[in-house]
Amino acid sequence: MVPFIQLFALYVIMHGSSGPGGGFQGGVIFGASFVLLVIAFGIVNAGDRFPEAVNTALFSTGVYIYAGVGLLCLISGILYFGVIEAQYLNYGYLPLPVHFEERRALGMDFIEIGVGITVMAVIAEIFFNLAWKKEEDEGEGEGEGIEKGEPE
Q1: Which of 94, 116, 115 is nearest to 105 (CA)?
Q2: What is the pLDDT along the chain (152 residues), one digit of tens a residue?
Q3: Using an 8 Å Cβ cutoff, are 40 and 2 in contact?
Q4: CB 3.0 to 4.6 Å from 108: which of 17, 66, 72, 132, for a disulfide?
């Protein structure tokens, strides 16, 4: 079931510029698929499949995609049209060999992909942190022999 949910999340991300949905909604659906993975396989197995280093790299990559597209628009706007005309996320200034309308559509898709990756990674990180914290709290009280309310 998880691959189908992730495929639907990719559909929502990629069609966000032309219909309902987008990067945030698709990222939340993608992050929810990791929650389902934890429910199905347990926190330890899911944590092994999706380590924290990969998660950190993913949400950094999403932010870099967003900022990179914006800076590319800004720099190419300055180079071709001057400082007065340059705008941060004006996708029409992207240096792509396609028509103006297609540049705008591709720029929006790049932004949606960056937002989707970031939201997915943040949702998964929040859930994994909460799940690991709950598991650690349950493991702390075992085997100590001290009941709640008893003085040490």
Answers
A1: 94
A2: 899 999 999 999 998 877 788 899 999 999 999 899 888 888 887 777 788 888 899 989 999 999 999 999 999 989 888 888 788 888 888 888 999 889 998 999 999 999 999 999 999 999 988 887 766 666 655 555 444 455 55
A3: yes
A4: 17
Q: Are 12 and 26 in contact, with CB atoms under 8 Å apart?
A: yes
List of E strands, 29-118 = none
Question: How many CA atoms does the CB half-sphere of 7 hold within 13 Å?
Answer: 4
Q: Counting every residue, how long is the chain?
A: 152
- Between CA 112 and CA 11 the distance in angstroms is 11
7, containing H or E segment:
helix 2-14
- The structure tokens listed for 9 are 């999340």
Residue type, 8: F
Phi, psi of 16 (to 5 degrees): -70, -25
The pTM of the full predicted model, rounded to 2 decimals, is: 0.80
Cβ count within 10 A of residue 20: 8
Least Cα distance to 13 among 34, 27, 33 occurs for 27
